[in-house]
Amino acid sequence: MKPRTRRLTLILGGMGAIGVATVLVLQAFQENLVFFYTPTQITNNEAPANKSFRVGGMVVTESVKREPGGLQVEFLVTDTAKTIPVRFTGILPDLFQEGKGVVAQGQLNSDGVFIAAQVLAKHDENYMPPEAKDAVDQATKNRAKMAKPVNNYESK
Question: What does pTM read for this prediction?
Answer without folding.
Answer: 0.63
